[in-house]
C-alpha cells in the first residue's frame, strides 16, 4: 500500500514474500527463519578461533559494516566503547565481524585501535560463510547495524541488538522476541539513502553507547521479549 505522499507504507518484506508464495500455492504457515550448521564448518571455526569457542565469558559478535552504504553504520568509536564495557562488566570475548570489503576492513581496524582491550578482528582472520554461521551459533549476543548478518543471528536464535537510522525497521522486522531494535531518532529519518546528505550523521549519532550497553545488559541477563526505541 502507498501513503498519501506516494511512498510505500513500511511493511515487513516477509509479509510481501509470503503473500507471493501463498498465491502460488505454497504453505506459508511457518514464518520462522531457520539455518543449519555444517559440522565440518563448525570444526574449522573452532580450530581457527579456539579462544572464542572456549571462551569462559559471553561471546559477543559486533557487525559494524553495511553493504547498503555508510549511512547505516554506527560510529566506530562507539562500537569500541561498547566492546570495552562488555569486557569490563562481563568478561566478554568480542569479535568484530566484517566482509572483505576494504571499507569494512578499515572500520574493523578503527574499532580495534580505539578499544582499550584486545578484540578479535576477523579482517585479519578471514572465515568463510559456513564458518561465519558457526561463529554466530555460539554467540551469546550479536550487535549489528541494519545489515545481512543480523538475519543470520536471528535465524540462529541468538540475542540481537539491531541499530537503525536511515531505514525504517518495519521493512525487515521478523517479530523475533530476543531482538532489541534501537532506532536513531532524527528529523530527517528515515531517509532511505545509502549516504547521509546532512552535515552530521544525526540518526546514527542519536544512538548512544549507554543505550546499546543497557540493551546488552537486558538481553544478557534476561531472555524475555524486549523492545526499545
TrEMBL record:
Any Gene Ontology CC annotation: cytosol
InterPro entries registered for this protein in UniProt: Glyco_trans_9, LPS_LOS_Heptosyltrfase
GO molecular function terms attached to this record: ADP-heptose-lipopolysaccharide heptosyltransferase activity
Gene3D superfamilies assigned: Glycogen Phosphorylase B
UniProt GO BP: lipopolysaccharide core region biosynthetic process
Keywords: Glycosyltransferase, Transferase
Pfam families: Glyco_transf_9 (PF01075)
UniProt-recorded name of the protein: Lipopolysaccharide heptosyltransferase II
